[in-house]
Amino acid sequence: MSASGVKKVVLAYSGGLDTSIILKWLQEEYGCEVVTFTADIGQGEEVEPARAKAQAAGVKEIYIDDLTEEFARDFVFPMFRANAIYEGEYLLGTSIARPLITKRLIEIAKETGADAISHGATGKGNDQVRFELGAYALMPDVKIIAPWREWDLLSREKLMKYAEEHGIPVEMKRKGKSPYSMDANLLHISYEGYDLEDPWCEPSEEMWRWSVSPEAAPDKPTYIELTFEKGDVTAIDGVVMSPATVMTELNRIGGANGIGRDDIVENRYVGMKSRGCYETPGGTILLKAHRAIESLTLDRESAHLKDELMPKYAELVYNGYWWSPEREMLQAAIDQTQDVVNGVVRLKLYKGGIMVVGRKSETHSLFDESIATFEDDAGAYDQKDAGGFIKLNALRLRVAARRRNS
């Protein structure tokens, strides 16, 4: 065992420069065995090259897992049942991926007998909080090594020098490679850094990867129909799909129609404001459609209570409390409401916009045409009753007005 007491650590490993340096740093500074874990959560990049890089670094236990279906089914879909959106704009694409990665890190730590985990999140960001809160919730005595909070390699120059001194291959930037710090998964792709650090600077068109600009989107609208079962999309245009396939297809359709771009200044949990740009085409469509089917099938008070709870739920996800009892409590309440959220929503997509143009539920619609009609309702609703209803609700207002006027 090393002097640090750590004999084996599981590293969340992408194979990029930062985590490759972390791998070597752990071996040197902690004198321990390193197990690497690389997750495929739909980021759209090859993950297998990470295996060769880990092997070259002397790693004996290498985990590369396809988690796309689990990610969509057990994390993205439950979050969208809540209609979760942080600070009115952010669809939580990075936030929701962290609990799954953490869960698998802890599982691997237990499988391999490791006594520590490590991640590449910096000491300024939200991800360190998300990874570590989740890890402690799942394995309370685990040791967590966060190199960015320990080492002095706090600049790109120092990282490059360390890589050179230790023989770590550095892939030179290819022509056309993005200068932004990017994070992608099945739900979104985020962009930070470079010229985005000036919140007045408009992002260049070349930055966006998943979507065309609204101006360049087709001049003809695209219509799609989404089938919901218990709050989750199970089919697009009548074709039954798995959760991951639903997200992939919605990303494709939405991106082709210029949907899902956001430019946001958000409040990080660690205290600072951060400007980021996001592409979430599939999630933007999903949120619009889910609220549409709920408008038809949810009781008014249930729907309003859900809307009151949503900001708290979104904050819990953003801040890293996915594995907390309060998030699980809210999830149970939200999921109970979704038993009736069944039906079909028809959407019109056009140049960055989404319009709901139809919704129906054969089994759970609460829309009663005989009551809602402006025509003769044949006694289904007595309009005279509204007078008493209004007077009762106005009673306190009238009492207060009399006191003011007396």
Structure report:
This protein has 406 residues and is of the alpha/beta class. It has 3 domains: 8-165, 3-Layer(aba) Sandwich (Rossmann fold); 181-298 and 341-360, Argininosuccinate synthetase, chain A, domain 2, CATH 3.90.1260.10; 369-405. The chain contains 12 helices and 14 strands. The strands form 3 sheets. Strands 3-2-1-4-5 form a 5-stranded parallel beta sheet, with helices on both faces. A 5-stranded antiparallel beta sheet has the order 10-9-8-13-14. A 4-stranded antiparallel beta sheet has the order 6-7-12-11, with no helix packed on it. The relative contact order is 0.12.
Topology (elements, then pairings):
Elements: E1 8-12, H1 17-30, E2 33-40, H2 49-56, E3 62-66, H3 68-81, H4 98-112, E4 116-118, H5 127-138, E5 143-145, H6 156-165, E6 181-184, E7 189-192, E8 222-229, E9 232-236, E10 239-240, H7 243-256, E11 261-267, E12 273-279, H8 281-297, H9 300-319, H10 325-337, E13 343-350, E14 353-360, H11 369-372, H12 385-405
Parallel strand pairs: 1-2, 1-4, 2-3, 4-5
Antiparallel strand pairs: 6-7, 7-12, 8-9, 8-13, 9-10, 11-12, 13-14
Helix pairs in contact: 3-7, 4-5, 7-8, 9-10
Shape: elongated
Point out poorly predicted stretches.
Answer: none
What portion of the residues fall into strands of 2 or more residues? 15-25%
Q: Please state the CA-atom Rg, rounded to the nearest Å.
A: 25 Å
The arrangement of helices and strands along the chain is: EHEHEHHEHEHEEEEEHEEHHHEEHH
Mean pLDDT across every amino acid position: 94
Number of structurally distinct domains: 3
For the secondary structure, the number of strands is: 14
Spatial strand order of the main sheet: 3-2-1-4-5
What would you say the CATH architecture of the largest domain is? 3-Layer(aba) Sandwich
Distance between the termini: 84 Å
- Oligomer status: single chain
Name of the CATH homologous superfamily of the largest domain: HUPs
Please give the share of residues in helix. 25-40%
Helical run tally:
12
Quickly give the structural class.
alpha/beta
And the CATH topology of the largest domain? Rossmann fold
Highest-level CATH class of the largest domain: Alpha Beta
Largest sheet: 5 strands, parallel
